């Protein structure tokens, strides 16, 4: 069956409120509408083109007008945009994002990469069929909190777990203030509980093999998302999801599945880290010194909590590691911005000098 996004004859009215369109967005779009543009939500981005949904149906649109060398500014799944309707539709402007999942670019440059935009709920998938990677869970939660959306942890594959209750308790210590649901797509365990926690635009986040796509198919009520097997020895899988794609949920709202994340670099995620390590942040307020490094300083409330068994050394090490990484990423970004400003100024100065020389030769 041909996709409606590639069938130019396909046309039907769509209620964009199903996709998250609000009165606030409508007000922000007023100027674009007066210019003859129509609102569209990006469903999927693919090599300079995107699938989008509009009030008149799906459209396959060009993205050339929105090109940017900075991945942080590139259109992504979940963005709301202004579309110029024609025989060759084109997106010409993005509406401001109210939330976004941003990680450090996989290229190790100083740019950030947006994984999904305008989201309300981030479901972090953690497989119970593989050894728990506490550091990875903390990283994913930092991304989720920093996005501005509400994180939820879904412990998947409960039917394959040796001791689901023990892992649940371990994850509880990693995720203060986060709802945690133990699920099984195979048996349907607590899928209704997870569904009740979802609202608006939901993103599935996690490594390959965590069961994101299988979980998504249960939420969607049909096999829409590609799934694959995982290696028994480590629970890792191949990237069966290769694009971020937005799909309507039958109970309301939309779902975005994401490719499995191997690299989860932090990008300006200070707020997210404060949420993930909120107990350390609270303890630090009672340290004798305001700049306490939580090492050998006297009167360190964090070290006191470790001695009392209220906090683990691993948790503190992870906090330090992610803080260092985030600070380094922020400093690289600042250096890049300074270099860009310097290069722009040099270009302007060079242009002015060339102009003055030309005027001098003419006089």
From TrEMBL:
Its cofactor is Zn(2+). It comes from the Bacteria. Residues 117-262 form the EngC GTPase domain. Pfam families: RsgA_GTPase. InterPro entries: G_CP_dom, P-loop_NTPase, Ribosome_biogen_GTPase_RsgA, RsgA_GTPase_dom. This is Small ribosomal subunit biogenesis GTPase RsgA. NCBIfam families: ribosome small subunit-dependent GTPase A. It is an enzyme of class 3 (hydrolase). The keyword Nucleus does not apply. One of several proteins that assist in the late maturation steps of the functional core of the 30S ribosomal subunit. Helps release RbfA from mature subunits. May play a role in the assembly of ribosomal proteins into the subunit. Circularly permuted GTPase that catalyzes slow GTP hydrolysis, GTPase activity is stimulated by the 30S ribosomal subunit. Monomer. Associates with 30S ribosomal subunit, binds 16S rRNA. It is found in: Cytoplasm. Keywords: Cytoplasm, GTP-binding, Hydrolase, Metal-binding, Nucleotide-binding, Ribosome biogenesis, RNA-binding, rRNA-binding, Zinc. Belongs to the TRAFAC class YlqF/YawG GTPase family. RsgA subfamily. Zn(2+) binds at residues 287, 292, 294, 300. Its EC number is 3.6.1.-. Binds 1 zinc ion per subunit.
């Amino acid at each position: 069956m041909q996709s409606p996004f590639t069938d130019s004859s396909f046309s039907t009215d769509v209620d964009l409120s199903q996709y998250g369109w609000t009165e606030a967005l409508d007000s922000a779009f007023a100027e674009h509408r007066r210019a003859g543009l129509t609102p569209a939500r990006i469903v999927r981005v693919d090599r300079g083109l995107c699938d989008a949904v509009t009030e008149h149906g799906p459209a396959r649109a060009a993205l050339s007008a929105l090109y940017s060398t900075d991945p942080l500014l590139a259109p992504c799944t979940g963005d709301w945009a202004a579309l110029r309707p024609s025989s060759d539709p084109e997106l010409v402007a993005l509406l401001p994002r109210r939330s976004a999942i941003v990680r450090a670019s996989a290229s190790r440059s100083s740019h950030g990469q947006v994984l999904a935009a305008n989201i309300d709920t981030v479901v972090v998938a953690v497989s119970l069929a593989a050894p728990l990677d506490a550091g990875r869970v903390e990283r994913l939660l930092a991304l989720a909190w920093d996005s501005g959306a509400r994180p939820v942890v879904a412990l998947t594959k409960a039917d394959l777990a040796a001791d689901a209750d023990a892992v649940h308790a371990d994850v509880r210590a990693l995720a203060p203030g986060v709802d945690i649901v133990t699920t099984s797509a195979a048996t349907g365990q607590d899928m209704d509980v997870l569904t009740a926690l979802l609202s608006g635009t939901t993103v599935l986040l996690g490594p390959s093999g965590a069961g994101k796509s299988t979980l998504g198919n249960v939420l969607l009520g049909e096999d829409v998302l590609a799934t694959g097997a995982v290696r028994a020895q480590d629970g890792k899988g191949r990237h069966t999801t290769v694009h971020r794609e937005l799909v309507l949920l039958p109970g309301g709202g939309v779902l975005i599945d994401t490719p499995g994340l191997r690299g989860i670099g932090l990008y300006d995620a200070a707020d997210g880290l404060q949420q993930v390590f909120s107990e350390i942040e609270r303890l630090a307020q009672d340290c004798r010194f305001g700049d306490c490094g939580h090492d050998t300083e006297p009167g360190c409330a964090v070290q006191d909590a470790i001695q009392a068994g209220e906090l683990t050394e691993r948790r503190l090490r992870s906090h330090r590691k992610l803080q260092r990484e985030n600070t380094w990423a922020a400093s690289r970004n600042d250096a890049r911005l300074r270099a860009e400003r310097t290069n722009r100024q040099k270009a302007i100065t060079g242009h002015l000098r060339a102009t003055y020389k030309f005027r001098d030769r003419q006089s």
